[in-house]
Specification:
This protein is an alpha/beta fold and 310 residues long. It is 39% helix and 15% strand. It has a six-stranded mixed β-sheet with strand order 4-3-2-1-5-6, with helices on both faces. Helix 4 links the parallel strand 5 and strand 6. Helix 5 runs antiparallel to helix 6 and helix 6 runs parallel beside helix 12. The chain is globular. The protein starts with a strand and ends in an 8-residue tail after the last strand.
């Protein structure tokens, strides 16, 4: 069986479940485990260092013209001759969508099975792992994989209950300029970590959120994790927020509860990385209860400790 993944999250779960022997092609932004894999999907933004504002303008213009940011290496895909192609319909910015995938696949001599993975909430992402493994004929592998991850989230919840931890008023930003709230599975991650984000859109798309709404909501904890940005990249954009009127009045700023976090724990829905996100959020929301190990502590940073980058 030959598999091609047009979705970084699917690629990550394939590796996490030890099923990579069936993988023959990936996208340019798939995780480091797949660094040596043939890159079937490319993007016009690849290798560029555009700002948040520029990326938003490029996507808006592309969408208005009915164009995609992504393209497929047709010759490479034909040479692989896949049996299964994993794709998605969640976001046209983050990854190539099913419509573009179908257009590329129609040209192939052998027609593969398209398996779209389009989760809306956290439980859906768990089920995506089963969908992937079932398509390969290895469903039991997914069940074992998910059991260990479920135990991690259950342990966090048990600890929150045992310590009678209060819910923290949280906002997680998926984009800086313009500001986007968080959607889909992220509000469920926040809840699993002991917080609530009343500006979020659970099981739905993230949307532009006006700054005055953020000020009125006044989060106790502010998590900044723009899609596609790691901590260092987000740091380059922080002046867009810190220069806004009222920034210093936010409770999260006053109490040094502003965090930068790597995007892959939130906006790349591999269930393993999302559980890492829940773990990291629990440490941000309730540092008096949870302590991050070395691996998790490298994935987020308290903004008040900016001097470590100097």
């Amino acid at each position: 069986m030959r598999i091609v993944s047009f979705l970084p999250a699917a690629t990550k779960m394939i590796y996490d479940m030890g099923l990579q022997e069936y993988l023959y092609g990936v996208t340019f932004e798939c995780p480091k485990e797949a660094a040596d894999m043939p890159k079937v999907v490319r993007c016009i933004l690849e290798g560029k260092n555009y700002s948040s504002i520029e990326i938003d303008k490029i996507f808006s213009a592309s969408k208005a013209q009915g164009k995609s940011l992504y393209w497929v290496d047709d010759e490479l895909l034909e040479s692989i001759s896949p049996d299964i192609v994993f794709t998605q319909d969640i976001c046209e910015v983050c990854n190539i969508d099913t419509v573009c995938t179908e257009t590329a696949v129609m040209k192939l001599t052998k027609q593969p099975k398209l398996v779209p993975l389009s989760p809306n909430n956290l439980q859906d992402v768990f089920e995506c792992a089963i969908t992937i493994a079932r398509a390969i004929g290895k469903e039991e592998v997914a069940l074992n994989y998910l059991a260990s991850l479920q135990k991690q989230t259950d342990d966090i919840l048990d600890k929150l209950r045992a310590n009678k931890a209060p819910l923290k008023r949280v906002m997680l930003m998926e984009w800086i300029e313009p500001i986007y709230n968080c959607g889909h599975w992220i509000p469920f991650q926040i809840a699993a970590a002991g917080g609530v984000d009343m500006l979020s859109n659970p099981a739905g798309d993230s949307i532009v959120t006006q700054w005055d709404k953020v000020l009125k909501y006044n989060p106790q904890v502010l998590v900044i994790a723009p899609c596609g940005f790691d901590i260092t990249r987000s740091m380059e954009e922080m002046s867009l927020l810190t220069s806004k009127s009222g920034w210093n009045d936010l409770e999260a700023v006053k109490k040094n509860q502003v965090y930068l976090a790597d995007f892959d724990m939130f906006t790349q829905p591999s269930i393993g990385t999302l559980v890492d996100g829940i773990t990291s959020l629990s440490c941000m929301f309730h540092p008096e209860i949870f302590e991050a190990d070395e691996r998790i502590s490298a994935k987020f940073l308290n903004y008040s400790k900016i001097e470590v980058f100097k």
